[in-house]
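Q: Hi! Curious about what Olfactory receptor looks like structurally. Here's the sequence.
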Amino acid sequence: MFARSPVLNQSGPTEFVFRVFTAVPEFQALLFVLFLLLYLMILCGNTAIIWAVCTHSSLRTPMYFFLSNLSFIEISYTTVVVPLMLSNIFGARKPISLAGCGAQMFFFVTLGSADCFLLAIMAYDRYVAICHPLHYTLIMTQKLCIQMVGCAVGLALYLSLQLTSLIFTLPFCGHLREINHFLCDVPPVLRLACADIHVHQAVLYVVSILVLIVPFILISVSYVFITMAILRIRSVEGRRRAFSTCSSHLTVVLLQYGFCALVYLRPQSSSSVDEDRQFALIYTFVTPLLNPLIYTLRNKDVKGALRNAIIGKAALDTD
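A: Let's find out. The predicted structure is below.
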């Protein structure tokens, strides 16, 4: 497509450092504790969903299969970012090598893209379940579900490899460069290049359209049909349950796509640098945390499975 071999052997070993959130020790300690607690909550919440889906036969349906895959991606996504971020909050900033920065960017873009594709797949699953309930089991077979997840991950890997490889053909001026961010994201790294980046920015927009705009259009179309089908349901309770099932997914979609679009699809300017870092905190911490909270607090099946597991574990411990 537009790949080149990444050139990592430039004049001297280029390294990057991340800009600190604050130089005040008290605020550093507060941020460290806050981010660590959020990270642990993300790990525990998403792991609980995966465990519940894998151990309870009642949850072995396409919807929960996709939900467990989404939870796994969220865990991996935050793990790529947060540990390194925490290690740079205190004391002297630890440099990251050019290869290390490229690796973090590759996995971050891959997992973020797979997350967006999977949300679109989940919207299709809800469309089939609500608009074609009698044919749901015939359409959403286990084979098709696995194929859709595999295609989402494969496309994410391909796009991320192309984008990352292209960016790291650029020369970066100087030995130690400061990234105005807490991770090696594409826009802040591009700003450090000492070469023309118009082609690279154009490629970034193309990838962003494929990852954000196209899936969002598919999700929007799915929800138009879903809404029309729900409004035809005569039972008030039936409409309420249908809307409740879809609103959880729609909440995550709007947060994920909205803030990602603000970072990757708006024109880059010096005034947007700090805003990008703030927006990135939303889809690094808030969205992965909302995923288990929304789907467990608003889903009777998942809550029931977790409750039974906790009661069963307590009963075993008392024996």
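A: A fun detail: The first strand starts at residue 15 and ends at 18.
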